[in-house]
Amino acid sequence: MILADGDVAPEEDGELDRVRDTLGDDVIASPEEVFGATNAAVFTDRASRIITVFEILLLAFSDEHLHADESAVLAEICGALEISDDEHESLAVLAQRLVANPGDAVVRSEVETIIAAD
Question: Where would I find the H helices in the chain?
Answer without folding.
Answer: 10-23, 31-35, 46-61, 68-80, 85-100, 105-116
